[in-house]
């Protein structure tokens, strides 16, 4: 595959060499629909023909709003095949956010696929032509199915210039409005090649795709990975069927965000309390049987790699799963560097770190400890924003990530915080909350945490309890949180010691705007809502308060 210069060329290679190999597997209506490379290719060519008939200006931007599904992948490849640029949009965004992206990107056409909240979103794009997918219940004037009926497959295909723009990915925006990150065809195929070289994945790898394809990690790690190795992509029908669909798939690679692993842990402990689990694991014969049964039930019995990214995963969860024979490796990267930065591997997995360089990457720390990355797939820049683009590259071409870190003597990278997350208490002392939050997340009663402290003498922690924590009485939960504070405080500098814990009455979710679509806390939004209460909470007599 060394001569492959673009994702489209990779697809065409597999379409020609193994046309009958399954490429897409879609769970729908309790069944599985499969499409081979040849069958997918026919639809992709028909949709590309339909796009070309619209006579859009060359290299137009075409938006793609959908949950992960077979049509998402085929639409993406049809956009490439017709010589245009994809603008993926998170399917959970509200109409205001969607409209902002469509307008900023100058999108000329919109694919509407599998969605949960279409009625509340459609006001965002009344002005733009749309192509909807009937089998997912959305019937616009022009549909995927009607285009397949009216168009013959495109025969003459021009491969893109590798340096041409393939996509603009709008970041999920933890600190403000999203920025459009521009990547080329060459970037995407280089990133896929680097991941395959790092993981040494076999040809025809099986993937299970459910995290948003509008996010760089899923786009590169799964979509581009599958295109590079001729793999298969399986899509879940719904959140309710996620567990059974994953169990039925048993993919070769499984990638998740930390929240998924916490949910897995909770589900296992519901059926098998920790005390009983510990006892069974001590019995040699039952130990192996139990581990295999749990792996099978989770859908991980064949997984060569079980990975976590997008946010830090607590050490305690990694250790807990390791006792079950499930080795979770953490990876680190960002939209701007095509996630080609650092990762752990099963044979060199240092818990608490994000590993060593990924193949194709190198990195350095700036004078203030900021992680700076260079590889062969760095972004072309931010769309319509040359000033911001200039700010994120240093004078030697390294991307400034905004994350702070340090390397240990073995070359493993540890993330110590984010420069923009630092805050100053009214004592004038700066605090980096991330390392403290990671330690506190070892408490299984905590699902999400945000340490704050602007304008008060000492930091306080805002807490969303896990299901385990929510099932406890207020007294027991208070004791648990207070014990965590008393455990961590002796390890902190005087100005860092946590004074209070405040239990939030409302979860932080994507829907209420306090989580990004990749489950990262929007710290600035959380602070904006709650900062007026900091002083009152700090002055209260109780050390654990319920909002």
Strand content: 15-25%
CATH fold-level name of the domain at 7-234: Rossmann fold
Helical amount among residues, as a percent range?
25-40%
Unreliably modeled segments: none
Entry keywords:
five-stranded mixed β-sheet; 547 residues; GMP Synthetase, Chain A, domain 3; four-stranded mixed β-sheet; Rossmann fold
Summarize the structure.
This protein has 547 residues and is α/β, with parallel strands linked by helices. The N and C termini lie far apart (57 Å).
Write up what this structure looks like.
Among the domains are: 228 residues, Rossmann fold, CATH 3.40.50; 123 residues, GMP Synthetase, Chain A, domain 3 (2-Layer Sandwich), CATH 3.30.300.30. Helix content is 35%, strand content 22%. The chain contains 19 helices and 26 strands. It has a five-stranded mixed beta sheet with strand order 11-12-13-14-15. Strands 2-1-10-9 form a four-stranded mixed beta sheet, with helices on both faces. Strands 4-3-5-6 form a four-stranded parallel beta sheet, with helices on both faces. The chain is globular, with a radius of gyration of 24 Å.
